[in-house]
Fold this protein.
Amino acid sequence: MCWSPAPDTAVTRCISHAEGLAVRATEEIHALVGEVRRVLRADGVFVYTVRHTGDAHYGAGRS
């Protein structure tokens, strides 16, 4: 995983689309969210999307 070199509280918006497809271990998810927390401003917005069993493409990705 490669982290952003952004300084603390420098980001106002962060979008992570279907990151669950690439991040598999709970520790990796915690690390991702921790980094977002570090760079996101107090009034910032973090949008994290994931696939679910109701998704039309569920099961079609890597396993």
